[in-house]
Amino acid sequence: MHYYQFHIGDYKSHTYHLSLIEDLAFRRLLDHYYLHESPIKQRDIARKIGLEDYEQEVLTVLDEFFVSTENGYIHPRADAEIAKFRKFSEDGKKGAAMRWSKGGDSPPIATPMATNNQEPITNNHKSIKKTATVVATPEGVEYDVWQDYLELRKKRKAPVTERVIDGLRQEASNAKMSLNDVVKTCVVRGWQSFRAEWAKSEKTTFAQQAADIARITVPGTQERDPALVKLDQDKMLTKPPSLETLQKLALLRAK
Fold it and tell me: Is residue 190 part of a domain?
């Protein structure tokens, strides 16, 4: 495959603990795996991805993110993506052959053009069939929390789209909550969606209740409020302006 989808949120949630070299090794191993569509041989992989001086870091990433088999290291998720697009490409190839067989002519050879929205192309298959994509874990949301929310929406037969995420993000802002807390609240309470007013109507926290009790039960004091005392003192110190001052003010206003 010369192209594959890269879910930034999903990747970050699994690789925050990696060092810079380990992160670079993982990205290059993925690129190598998708490009060659075959298991990775441990023997010389560090040299092939340009990290010969960091062989230990490469092996660490292989052991953590890939599965060792008798044929080499494999990546199950990548294998699933490769198999999926091979099938789509094969279906598209068969469909094109059937259409051209009816006309009796050979299909024209088109030169592929790379675009920002280009779908993955494998080494052996050129035809492409557009497929639906899965919304990646949003920024700031824990991976496990997001997976639970997807499962909740799936049971309700409510697909998750970018518009759904934008709505959650807006309601989180209205409720002054993080997006992760909003999604977690939906999971815990079995909510398909979220509204800021729902959070406001929920029972207050223990700390809030304790603060309310303290305000109600603390006995009042007989002393006057210091702010009121200060106002009275300032009032006693003030005096009306003199006649001479009033005359000067009148002349200034006349000018």
Answer: yes
Q: Has residue 67 got a pLDDT over 60?
A: yes
Q: Are 14 and 146 in contact (CB under 8 A)?
A: no
Domain containing residue 81: 1-103+119-130
CA atoms of 170 and 165, how far apart (whole Å)? 9
User: Does 171 map to a domain?
Assistant: yes
Structural domain total, the chain: 2
With CA atoms as reference, report the closest residue to 89 among 30, 33, 130, 35: 130
- Could you give phi then psi for residue 68, rounded to 5 degrees? -80, 130
Residue 38 sits at the vertex; the CA angle it makes with 33 and 44, to the nearest 5 degrees, is 70
**Of how many residues is the chain composed?**
255
Sign of CA dihedral 62, 68, 70, 75: negative
Alpha-carbon span 70 to 72, nearest angstrom: 6
Using CA atoms, how far apart are residues 121 and 117, in angstroms rounded to an integer? Answer: 12
Give yes or no: residues 125 and 148 share one domain.
no
Q: Are 61 and 105 a contacting pair, CB within 8 Å?
A: no
Domain ends where: 201, 220, 243? Answer: 201
pLDDT digits (tens, 9 = 90+) for 74-101: 998 888 888 887 887 777 777 777 777 7
At which residue do the structure tokens 């789509």 appear? 88
Q: Are residues 123 and 21 in the same domain?
A: yes
For 123, the token pair is 């080494």
The C-alpha atoms of residue 73 and residue 30 are separated, in whole angstroms, by: 11
Q: What is the pTM of this model?
A: 0.37
